[in-house]
Design a protein that fits this description.
About 45% of the residues lie in helices and about 15% in strands. It is α/β, with parallel strands linked by helices.
Length: about 350
Amino acid sequence: MRRQEAKYISLVNWIKEKINQKELRAGDKLYSENELSRMFGLSRQTVRHALGVLEAEGLLERVRGSGTYVGSRKGSIRKRLMNIAVISTYVDGYIFPPTLQGIVQTLSGSGYTTQIAFTNNRVDNERKILEGILEKDNVDGVIVEATKSALPNPNLEYYQELKRRQIALLFFNCGYPELDAPVVALDDVHVAEEAVNYLLSQGHRKIAGIFKADDGQGKLRYTGYVNALLRAGLNVDDKSILWIDTMDQKSLRMIKDSVLRRLIGCTAVLCYNDEVAFGLIELLHKEGFRVPGQLSVASIDASELSMLAEPHITSVPYPMEELGCKAAKNMLTLIEEPDFDGEYLFRPKILVRDSVKKIEGF
């Protein structure tokens, strides 16, 4: 009995020492009862008693169905606040309003309020928003659209702090590869393959590509473009690929010479999204090119903007409101079940319209 008592005390002291030395921090998950039992040669009943003592002191918190976590030393378990923060890059455009509407409606239907902030795709704005969320500490979860996700991000420590505090974290559209957090998005590799495969089916063999360089979706869509060409036995010609950034996307006319140079010798082009495709078609018309007579255009998003273009743009749909709803539903599950795999990728089919010409004789 005395030996068991000594072992029980040694387990309590061991955990306290780990916390004092900051080897275990608030929010860290503790070893399971079975693992501690094997490590210290104690019965599960004795381990449970030791954890109960530490829980009474406010050093540990037991979460039903999840495990035991290091507490905040204040002796209080994190209470449900019924509030979710949503961070998006932009408030305008054809993508964001429907997606955000899907998020807000789904969360409000489950009794949650939302606080929405916009980064304008700037990492300094993202940093300020994250600092505010951590300072107020009044949310159960954060749903984020990553800012310039293809580039090194200086704000990763703030996301790590959210996770350390057991605040649920989920990304939409694209996340940061350095973080272990779920993403709800288009399957960007697949949708680019879908678009290129359609161009190939119409006889096009010299296909240009316009992709964004500063977000992860651009790189993933480039991967799909490359995959489709290689599977068709075609070479990838760097001279036919144009990389643009967020500023270029808003005004292709400012880089007109670069755009036209990349299209030389091509019969078709895959655009990063409808905004790029719409701007490209406008530019081509002003330069005297016929679409699809001289150049076929395919895109991604199948938004209202694709129907405003002349001709209407063949495009792979982005399920805007549906994606927002799915992100919110997965966030709600993550709050209840921290170990839930919230990853989800949509794989829509291409919508064929008028911007792609079939090559004669194919």
